[in-house]
Design brief:
Low-confidence stretches: none
Number of helices: 14
Strand content: 15-25%
Largest sheet: 5 strands, parallel
Helix content: 25-40%
Shape: elongated
Strand order of the largest sheet: 3-2-4-1-5
């Protein structure tokens, strides 16, 4: 009969944090296996040393390399795969002989551990039990003495070996985080934390529950002193006291056309980091609950300048303020209002940033196919801030230039004539069969995307939640096999 395989989690380093199940598995085993570097020492063995008997058969699984340089024809990954195959074969020989094998693993066996490579090769062939262990994540939080995450907060575990841009995006878009595998990656991780606006929150834990343990504020750590067995921690910010700042900042955030799924990681990070959220109430309601303690300041849609001034005043008092805008803030939205007020002398020293979002035209175009595949013009049909004569002139000029048109703000309860007037004007210059995309509530629960023709466009079916895409002479509408009509504008102009 074959033997039994155990993957034994030993915890973060202190033998007292081994579980009873881990101790029993080691004591019942015939073979104790553990990974080590080429120097032969094994942290896993040192943790379990008092439970290893003289009559245990010990299998030292020695890595052939510890850095990503090798002359192996398959490169670093190929060399490791060969090692794991050879190590698994050694363990399989014991199992085939009927021996019980305990493979020791620091932390938890299936959490960034070497055991998992044995498990994938052996567990389907032999009776296997994995005994979980306390991870370095839990150990670091315990040593910091701070909650890691609470309530609806999201915890993200990130390997520090990711590219800096990816690290920045993931750190910006989460509530709490632990970054593993520091060592030589520490400078990159530090820069990513700073770019994500989270450096002041970051903590550093080295060798938790091991000899040489160290905890510090991460920004004060010397990169030259950081070993592999260390982690960066962004603990829970619930009940955290915000730092006192002489001057805060205003970030104008584009939330996309509908809500949380359309947020970019950078925008999500700005919303997470904000002390105050300011915006039109309808758009504020789209922002997910990010963290307790944030203040939300909603207002009517027609007070953009007042909203901008309010946000800048908060920032002057040291608050981080996110001004929430639908779509892209620079496309008929809040960025202009904020920058206009920020240009006044009283606010000249308040930092202001604008973060892009998915604008309605791009969202509608994607839902319809690719009608914006060639040159296009974006025009608002609202005549509240500019006269209709100007709008009509721009429609005529863009149509004569044979541009695809993206028409924002086409109609509302108090503006009912614009769509009909625009349609009639366009029919003077463009073919009646020109494809028109009527996109309403794109990304929302009432999404409707239809393709009609210019001559059949019905103004009564258009409201403020609708965006119109008027094709050029080259735009095509094609019915697919599933009955769906798609539109696209060729990149070649014939």
């Amino acid at each position: 009969m074959s033997g039994k395989l155990y993957g034994v989690g030993l915890g973060p380093g202190d033998p007292n944090l081994m579980t009873v199940a881990a101790v029993k598995a080691i004591e019942s085993a015939d073979v104790v296996a553990y990974h080590s570097a080429r120097h032969g020492r094994s942290i896993a063995r040192s943790i379990a040393a008092e439970h290893i008997r003289e009559d245990h058969i010990e299998e030292r699984l020695m890595y052939p390399l510890t850095v990503e340089t090798t002359d192996h024809p398959g490169g670093y990954r190929g060399a490791l795969d060969d090692f794991y195959e050879e190590a698994s074969a050694r363990l399989a020989a014991h199992l085939d002989a009927g021996r019980t094998v305990a493979v020791l693993a620091e932390g938890d066996p299936l959490f960034y551990g070497s055991y998992q490579h044995m498990h994938k090769r052996l567990a389907h062939r032999y009776d296997t039990t994995v005994i979980p262990g306390v991870t370095s994540v839990s150990a670091a939080a315990a040593r910091l003495g701070e909650p890691l995450c609470e309530a609806e907060e999201v915890l993200t575990i990130i390997p520090g070996t990711l590219p800096e841009d990816e690290l920045t995006a993931r750190l910006a878009g989460t509530d709490s985080a632990v970054v593993m595998k520091l060592g030589r990656t520490f400078p990159t991780v530090r820069r990513a934390l700073e770019r994500a606006g989270r450096l002041e929150d970051a903590r550093y834990v080295e060798r938790a529950f091991m000899a040489g343990e160290r905890t510090e504020t991460l920004s004060e750590v010397d990169a030259e002193t950081v070993p592999y067995f260390s982690v960066a921690v962004l603990p829970s910010r619930i009940d955290a006291v915000p730092p006192v700042r002489e001057t805060g900042e205003v970030v104008v955030v584009g939330t996309g056309p509908a809500g949380a799924p359309w947020l970019t990681p950078e925008s999500r990070g700005a919303l997470v980091n904000a002390d105050d959220l300011v915006g039109y109430t309808t758009y504020l309601d789209r922002v997910p609950v990010l963290r307790p303690g944030q203040r939300r300041h909603g207002s009517d849609n027609k007070v953009e300048s007042e909203r901008a001034e309010f946000a800048l005043d908060l920032a002057r008092r040291g608050r981080r303020v996110a001004v929430v805008s639908g779509g892209d803030p620079g496309v008929f939205a809040m960025a202009t209002a904020v920058l206009e007020v920020a240009s006044e002398p009283a606010y000249a020293d308040v930092p202001v940033r604008v973060l892009p979002g998915v604008t309605a035209a791009n969202a509608a175009a994607a839902a319809a196919g690719a009608p914006l595949g060639h040159d296009y013009a974006t025009i608002s049909l609202s005549d509240r801030l500019k006269p209709w004569d100007v709008i009509a002139g721009r429609l005529r000029a863009a149509t004569e230039a044979d541009l695809v048109l993206a028409l924002y703000n086409p109609g509302s309860k108090s503006r009912t004539h614009q769509v009909a007037a625009a349609r009639d004007l366009l029919l003077e210059l463009r073919a009646p069969e020109t494809p028109v995309v009527v996109a309403r509530d794109v990304g929302g629960p009432e999404q409707s995307v239809r393709v009609v023709t210019l001559k059949t466009l019905e103004p009564s079916e258009v409201d403020m939640r609708t965006l119109l895409l008027i094709g050029s002479s080259q735009t095509r509408a094609v019915e697919r096999g599933d009955g769906r009509t798609i539109t696209w504008t060729p990149r070649r102009y014939g």
